[in-house]
């Protein structure tokens, strides 16, 4: 009996001690839930007042969608709600193929202007020419519509007919052109050989990127008479806003024989993942130069970071955008979707480039624009100076201390100072004229919208070989061929000391 009482008393005492420890979290949780429900009641009250008292009648659906989008955009610049139309448009962009005409368009003074028809597409076969103005689609006027709205009118099911009304400078009167829509594949990679160097211009990362890259390299090697006639490769990622993570992994793997490509870490440890390279190198060990600038973001930075960390390529240009987060597209009710930031990604060395970007091994600034260039051209250059860190609400880099950040900034300042003598001599860097702007989300956006097409003026400029095709820009490849081929990156190592962020691993 005595032992029982003692045990009972001990149990009572423990109960006194333990009960508050258990009750504390429970009470806190209940308090938080009560506060959450209170805030939801506030939302409902405001919603009802808007419906009843706003100066004009409101659309309930649009109002709720705007509220949802506001909730998501408050998290970071890359989370957002996608309406059914926006979700469909994103699927089209990532798929890289859709039913359309095959033209690249922009908007000029409120009119839809054809930049160029794509080769071997319905528009080209029907006789659409660069510089044509499209005034009507199936009798419906386009004046007053946004470019997006005009684009939607021109897209449609494969095999359906569309009639566009065209105004052409050489013709006295507007005329109609009948076109049968067909599947249009967006060209994600353009290839050409300059001298003995294969140049791969990667403009986006969609489902077509790796197939385009593989086919282009194979084609150029065959045209050169074999890999022995090629001295190296240039992978141009400038102004590439990113895209699919899976394609960034495939493109990186295309040039790596082994090792980690990228890893992701989410909120919970089990949400992390990592990807490793498989045997096989499309470049067959030849030296590689990767070009980046402030417009290179997300998937572009994954590729540049992976090849840089493995010393497989020399990265040339200016610091990249610094988007080191991963967004997951989640379908929601009503055919819409939610784009939510779910993880950060890390390069093979364990460094996060979030808000920092990839620092090039060799800093080469973009060339100054011609004084006679258009406002669009100027906007593209100015936009490239904006980075992830400049965006309101952007995520912090979780793998760096304040001391690390200060050291990085000091190293970049020294690298900039090292460039001053060269700038004084009027040195020019790698340039690529591509009409792109940056929007507030940090993603690259075409100054002229893809109507049924590829990347606006970039295709024309690339074909002309503007700047990029200039031989002097590739003299650097020949000059470093020996060290590159043997992976003795002496020049890169010297520059890296002043430009590359320390390889910090997040715990």
Summary keywords:
single chain, alpha+beta, Pdz3 Domain, six-stranded antiparallel sheet, 37% helix
Structure description:
This protein is an alpha+beta fold and 507 residues long. The chain has two domains: 88-185, PDZ domain (Pdz3 Domain), CATH 2.30.42.10; 189-432 and 467-499, Alpha-Beta Complex (2-enoyl-CoA Hydratase, Chain A, domain 1), CATH 3.90.226. It has helices at 2-53, 60-73, 84-95, 122-126, 147-154, 209-224, 245-253, 299-309, 375-383, 402-424, 457-464, 475-479, 481-485, 490-499; strands at residues 80-82, 97-100, 103-108, 111-117, 133-137, 140-141, 161-167, 175-180, 182-185, 189-194, 197-202, 232-236, 260-266, 273-276, 288-292, 314-317, 325-331, 337-346, 362-363, 436-438, 444-446. A hairpin with a 2-residue loop joins strand 5 and strand 6 (140-141). Helix 7 runs parallel beside helix 8 (299-309) and helix 10 (402-424) crosses helix 14.
